User: What shape does this take?
Amino acid sequence: MSQKDIGNKIPIYKLKTTDEVMKYYDEWGKKDKYNKDMVDWNYTGPKETVKTLIKYTDNKDILIFDAGCGTGLVGTELKRHGFKNFHGADLSQTLLDSVPENLYQKLDKVDLNQSIKTKDNYYDIVMCVGTFTFGHVKSLALDEFIRITKKGGLICFTINEGIFEDYGFDKKIKDLKENNKWQELEFFKSDYIASKNVNAWLGLFKVQ
Ligand SMILES: C[S@@+](CC[C@H](N)C(=O)[O-])C[C@H]1O[C@@H](n2cnc3c(N)ncnc32)[C@H](O)[C@@H]1O
Assistant: This one.
């Protein structure tokens, strides 16, 4: 399937600007609609990424950053697996307001297309699930994720297959490997939203 065809599968994929995307989430986040749709669509991103992550770490005390946490589906999955320390960040206040109380130790409103106000080498792990997609967060954010992750730490993410080349993720991932910024541990096509025939690349990289 061509990248263009995937852009027709889900309404939000048509949006181009951050403002349009945030307005869309203002509606989608109401009355638990986003979470209900994710159940109906059998969205497996959070489960697949955390399942991949736990192959590489059994320390449940490490500090994790969930970039683009939305309503907290990744946090819920991290908690289910026994992780205790995770922070969430997202640009949608509507979605941040719908995160279950006390799930994350810290929640911030952050535009991930800008520099992140976090110290260098701060987190053990960065997760970014469902957020590298049409009109959302661009590949430059990977530089910031590497900066805020400790050396030897992990970055685990999905990239919607429909934007992988068009948004330059293919080139960015290759450049980061060639410049020894990170080392590939996993990179494969995951189910993601198989019910809608939309898959995503799932990557797990070790920061060098
Ligand atoms: C498909 S949702 C995924 C949410 C969550 N990680 C999950 O798996 O359910 C994409 C998220 O990206 C967030 N997002 C979009 N553009 C953003 C930006 N520029 N900065 C921060 N978050 C952004 C949206 O608000 C939304 O929560």
Q: What stands out?
A: Residues 18, 21, 25, 45-46, 68-70, 73-74, 90-92, 95, 110-113, 129-131, 136-137 surround S-adenosylmethionine (CB under 6 Å). The chain has a mean pLDDT of 97. Residues 47 and 77 are 6 Å apart (CA to CA). The two ends are 35 Å apart (CA to CA).
